[in-house]
Amino acid sequence: NIFAFGLFLSPIPTFRRVIRNQSTERFSGLPYIYSLLNCLICAWYGAPIISSGNLMVTTVNSVGAVFQTIYIILFITYTEKTQQLKMSGMLLVVFGLFAIIVFGSLLMTDLALRRIIIGCLSSVSLISMFASPLFVINLVIRTRSVEFMPFYLSLSTFLMSTSFLLYGIFNFDPFVYVPNGIGTILGIVQLALYFYYKRKAGEDAREPLIVSFS
């Protein structure tokens, strides 16, 4: 839970920059959309009505949903008009989809089946949240710069996914340890790319300037 709170707080430096510059620049809003959907579904999966012994999953993801909603509102406020409409539409889709999931699951009388279905949905949403930085990874590789891949976000993702991987293993809950195992691998990839391109940038900066007088 501590690492999860660290993940929720990690975008604060990014949004300080966004507010200061009055622009979202080339930052992507998709990770926050995926994170919100994931937090809502995982919070529902951890609820006693769906699965037992996962109340901490519900509490931390409920707090995470509040944080992600605030970040999305800030993103919509400072992004371009076309992106504002796109992000607003996606936000409505997330809440609508979550409402359908809640209503549909409450109609299921088979409690075991209800847990399996919501567990599968939470796993898919969690994997999509971990995979969402792939857009940023592509940008990092193309630009050879880590400017738009915040270090603390990548570190927090790795720490949180690793801790929940262990939590799921100790609780024998595949709906927790499988997606978080994938998240751990993707977190390692992000950190490896960050340090590689950060070091590369440092080496380029130390290269002597060649001045031609011809």
Structural overview:
- With 214 residues, this protein is an all-alpha fold.
- It has 9 helices and no strands.
- The protein is globular, with a radius of gyration of 19 Å.
- Residues 205-214 have low confidence and may be disordered.
- One of its GO terms (cellular component) is membrane.
In short:
It is found in: Endomembrane system. Helix content is 79%, strand content 0%. It has 214 residues and is an all-alpha fold.
Which structural class should the secondary elements be placed in? mainly alpha
Number of strands: 0
Strand percentage, roughly?
Answer: under 5%
Helix content: over 70%
Q: Please, how many helices?
A: 9
Bulk shape: globular
Pattern of helices and strands: HHHHHHHHH
Distance between the termini: 63 Å
- Tell me about the biggest sheet? none
Average pLDDT confidence is 83
- Could you tell me the radius of gyration in angstroms? 19 Å
Q: What are the low-pLDDT stretches, counting only 5+ consecutive residues below 50? A: 205-214
Comma- or semicolon-separated keywords:
214 residues; SWEET; repeat; 79% helix; Bidirectional sugar transporter SWEET; SWEET_rpt; mainly alpha; membrane
Q: What is the topological layout?
A:
Layout: H1 2-9, H2 12-21, H3 30-46, H4 55-78, H5 81-106, H6 111-131, H7 134-143, H8 151-170, H9 174-206
Keywords: Membrane, Repeat, Sugar transport, Transmembrane, Transmembrane helix, Transport
GO biological process, one term: protein homooligomerization
Subcellular location: Endomembrane system
